[in-house]
Amino acid sequence: MASTHNIDALSGPPFRHLSICRLPVEMLLSIANLLENKDLIRLGCTCAKLRKIMEDVLYRCPDLDPWDWDRKTYSKSAPSKIVPMKDTLEKRPDLARGVQELELGPRKTTVPIELAVMPALIAQSTPLCGSIEAHICEYFLAGALLHLTPNLRTLKLILHGTEMGKDKPLQKFFGPKVDDRKTDLSVIPGLRHLTTLHFLSNTDHHFQTLWATLPALREVQIRGIYTISDENVSQGPVMVRKLRLDALSPVLSPRDRRHSGWSTFLRHFSVLEELQVQIIPDYRKTNSSEVLGHGLLGSYSTLVNMIGHLRSVLTVLDLRLEHYDPTSFLDFVTPFCPSSLKEFSALKFLRIPYDGLFAKNATPSPSAQDCLARVLPECLERLEVLFPLLDIYNHFDRFLEHPQKTRFALKDVVYHCSNARGHPFEQFMYLSDPHPTFQRLRASNIDVQFHYRKQDRRPGWEEYDKATYALAKWLANGGNAYEGSIFADQVDNGGDVDQFEVVILPEGLGCFDLTPHGSIVRG
Q1: Residues 6+ positions from 385 with CB-CB distance below 8 Å
Q2: Cα torsion for 183, 189, 193, 199, to the nearest 10°?
Q3: Separation of alpha carbons 390 and 16, rounded Å
Q4: What is the pTM assigned to this prediction?
Q5: What does the longest C-alpha to C-alpha distance in the chain come to?
Q6: What is the pLDDT along the chain (523 residues), one digit of tens a residue?
Q7: Residues 10, 12, 14: CA angle, nearest 5 degrees
Q8: Residue 120 CB contacts under 8 Å (≥ 6 apart), including other chains
Q9: Which residues sit opposite 202 in a β-bridge?
């Protein structure tokens, strides 16, 4: 097939006679999915068969968000995308049945609608005197779209700005008669078969638990929403298997005022298998009692205790932090209580910051040699540690000496290094390799991996890898004279990496140490 760069060549009359139109519909759909929308539209103008393919692809996942992701701008005055989509789906039920994913970004603004277009909505509108138009809230029109898409599987609701304040989105979408506790949302055709719900906001909107009671819903993602109510819903069980949440750092303390709301909300999820919680510092509060600090300490054990009812079903617990997120709140986080995770008999995957597992600069004493073994469940297969310190090898050393180590299913250990917190990547990795515990982990069939951001890796470190690895191996094992090159930082060179040729003789070795930047210091 011609490339998308020469798509204009396909719009002429000869193209309609090409053999591509004889391909099966499934193959044409796969090809169409590789094209950009503008090229797809041009392609659909060539013949009736390709027009049908174009419509199927374009209307399968329509994007009705006013946010321009290319320009990273949000326009309140841009023409509504929801009104023409609703008009089209009303006239073309065949296209409405093909919508499987829908991204809605309604605005508070009202939209002028001609009275002859949607007379059924006149009761919900405010007629303008002397005009043939009515003004209808864009949120209500977005809710009306969900009545036209019976095969919808994925819904992404994006609530922009502070337009809704603390209002409840259900009433905005479906009218004031919606009851938070009793309304059955499955009667709405677009929600009846919904399996994935993404609820995103850049302000503190109110998430209603009623959304989670949809019978086919299996995955829920709630981003940018930190107020979780403690409402009790009576409309059916919650069958969600995968949940992703954003939480403010004070939720790690049982003294926080939002603790009860979070506890009640999480108790609704009785069959949850995967939970991802991203902790975000709360810098909006001025009251020192509402932020983690010297007056308020938190622990990831508090969060784990909220999901104690999932001990036998939870397989993934992801307490992630993005590299761009501030991590200063971790200075006021205390380690896990030993028994917090031990009873999670199905847990296979755990991702957690180093500060959530271990106290800083704490070396396990012989009397506590089974500390890590008492924290990790025996069924855990993969442990990912964020912002690790080299002290973690002391804890693993005690773990490997535990008499019941063979009962643990641990197979993979992943270190997520960052220059923002913990030991920098180059320091952690190149001091890990000669560490005896590092070798013992691999000898015990536990694979060790290092992850880092590309921004944290400076130019020249690819060559530094080879040279420093050879030098570290020579320092660990001894042997003949080492002749080679190493890379070391120069303070007056802006932190760039420069190369130095060195020769080290065994008899003059003395005591050497690798500094945080990989240079060699004679002791």
Answers
A1: 351, 352, 353, 354, 357, 392, 413, 414, 415, 416
A2: -70
A3: 65
A4: 0.75
A5: 100
A6: 444 444 444 444 444 445 666 666 666 666 666 666 666 677 767 677 777 777 777 888 887 766 654 445 555 566 678 888 888 898 899 989 999 999 888 776 676 666 554 555 555 555 544 455 666 777 888 888 899 999 999 999 887 654 444 556 677 777 777 776 677 888 889 999 999 999 887 655 567 777 888 889 999 998 876 666 556 555 567 899 999 988 888 888 888 777 777 888 888 899 999 999 988 876 555 444 445 665 678 888 888 989 999 999 999 999 988 766 677 788 888 887 777 788 899 999 999 999 888 876 555 554 444 478 888 999 999 999 999 988 888 889 888 888 888 889 999 999 988 888 888 777 787 777 778 888 888 889 999 888 877 766 655 555 555 555 565 565 555 555 444 444 443 333 344 434 433 444 443 343 344 444 444 433 3
A7: 90
A8: none
A9: none
Q: Are 197 and 220 in contact (CB under 8 A)?
A: yes
Phi then psi for residue 362, to 5 deg, are -105, 125
What is the strand order of the sheet 196-201 is part of? Answer: 63-64, 101-104, 154-159, 196-201, 219-223, 242-248, 274-280, 316-318, 349-353, 382-386, 412-416, 447-451
CA 329, CA 249: separation in Å to the nearest integer? 7
Burial of 402 (0-12, 13-18, 19+ CB in 10 A): middle
